[in-house]
Amino acid sequence: MNDAPLYPGATLGVLGGGQLGAMFAAAALRMGYRVAVWDPDSDAPAHRVAGLSFTKSFSDAIAAQEFTRSVSAVTLEWENVPAALCEQLAERHPVRPSGAVLRVIQDRIEQKQFLQARGFPVPSFRIVEAPHRLADAVNELGGSVICKTATSGYDGKGQWTIRHPAETAGVEAALGAMVPRGARWIVESRVNFERELSVLVVRGQDGDQRVYPVVENRHEGGILRLSTAPARIAGVVSEQARDLAMRAVRALNGVGVFCVELFHTRTGALLINEIAPRPHNSGHYTLDACSVSQFEQQVRALCGLPLGEVRLLSAAAMVNVIGQDLEAVTSSQGCRDLLATPGAVLHLYGKRVARPGRKMGHVTFLADQAEQAEARASLFEKSLRS
Ligand code: AMP
Predict the structure, then answer these.
(1) Are 274 and 329 in the same domain?
(2) Is the pLDDT of residue 101 over 90?
């Protein structure tokens, strides 16, 4: 496998063609690369910016050969692409992050055990191998818990909150009815957090690391709604969070862009919720507010080039445009009001169908202070609800 740096003019492959793939492709194109996008959904946003599009299933051997011939390096925009495909592609090209990293991250149980075994703080958890074992796990943990499918869950999908043991039977039935044989679940204590934080870490092949300012996040129904950068936390907490995130990515031996999601508890502790091995929704603000965005960093790390500066040029708050929010943003008055707001930057992903819970775009509000950016973001968010 040729590991030499790749310079503009080379063709970069990305597995997955959602908005993250599209924003990666846009950054790569701007820097003079060509991009091949592989996503079985021919309507996926990144196909619109791709120089080459692959739409066969990820298990199609001929498509894999063609893709291999077309690209010089491969990255991904979604952790649930087949790790085996990444390993196969890695026989010929750099694949960053690697299939080995994906194998740890794709399964919530593997990921939690990996982190716990290395001394990283995570919420208390139990593994559930069959639906009828759920009650034991809930009782052992005590208190309010969240049950999550070990694989394939995202944006709050495949998660059940159990606040009282009496709710266990209903969730047990749901597990039995909904998921295939051999599925596993993880049950976690529900963390009484003060706030949710995330930290973007970029790591190069040579181990060089860059870490962005800590971001504060608010979720609704398991989906990210609002991110504010920088987080309004004490400097010492911010340093602890950044240090924790950098150590976790180093432990994974990850190369590329990683987002470490954290809970900051009411007692002041930091716990790792999960790690995404790719640019993250909470890092979209870097497109408009930082000297080098998370997507450009993904290009740099993939190509074995010097990593970019992570300097915050402006405070920012980002609001996701989810499902039917799109109507408000594209209506004549809503669009005019938004664009008349100082510091507002609109990003829409070009998805044709606005299903509930689907991320259709985001808006970043730039301002001198995080409070001001967040105030504008909150006003916008309220306008979506009215
Ligand atoms: P996840 O898919 O695991 O990132 O979960 C989505 C969201 O659900 C998180 O960002 C939290 O808002 C919430 N959540 C997940 N796990 C926990 C937990 N153990 N305690 C409290 N809230 C959680």
Answers:
(1) yes
(2) yes
CA of 189 relative to ligand 1 center, distance in Å:
10
Instruction: Answer yes or no: do 234 and 318 share one domain.
Output: yes
Query: pLDDT digits over 105-149, tens only?
Result: 999 999 999 999 999 999 999 999 999 999 999 999 999 999 999
Tell me which residue range forms the domain holding 366.
Answer: 193-385
Ligand 1: residue of 273, 274, 281 to mutate (most ligand atoms within 8 A of CB) is 273
* Total domains present in the chain: 3
Atom of ligand 1 nearest to the CA of 217: 10
For the cut 80, the answer to whether the pLDDT of residue 336 exceeds it is: yes
User: What residue's CA is closest to ligand 1, atom 1?
Assistant: 156
The ligand 1 site (C-beta within 6 Å) comprises 123, 146, 156, 188, 190-191, 196, 219, 222, 261, 273-274
Tell me: do 244 and 367 sit in the same domain.
yes
Mutation pick for ligand 1 pocket among 108, 115, 124, 146 (CB with most ligand atoms within 8 Å): 146
Confidence grade of residue 176 (pLDDT, cut at 50, 70, 90): confident
Q: 296 and 361 share a domain?
A: yes
- Are 160 and 259 in a shared domain? no
Ligand 1: centre distance to CA 104 (Å): 19
Q: CA torsion angle for 271, 277, 281, 285 (degrees, to 10)? A: 90
pLDDT (tens digit, 9 = 90+) per residue, 229-286?
A: 999 999 999 999 999 999 999 999 999 999 999 999 999 999 999 999 999 999 999 9
**Residue 207 and residue 287 in one domain:** yes
> Does 287 lie in the same domain as 142?
no
**H helices of the chain, where?**
19-30, 61-70, 83-89, 99-106, 108-117, 134-141, 168-178, 235-252, 286-289, 294-303, 325-330, 332-340, 370-385
CATH number of the domain encompassing residue 253: 3.30.470.20
Query: Measuring CA to CA, how many Å separate 324 from each of 228, 340, 364, 385?
Result: 23, 21, 18, 10
Nearest CA, atom 17, ligand 1? 190
Residue 27 domain-assigned? yes
pLDDT score at 179: 61
Mean per-residue pLDDT of the chain: 95
116 is a domain residue: no
Is residue 155 pLDDT above 70, yes or no? no
In a domain, 15, yes or no: yes
Alpha-carbon torsion, ordered 48, 285, 212, 268, to 10 deg: -130
pTM for the model stands at 0.96
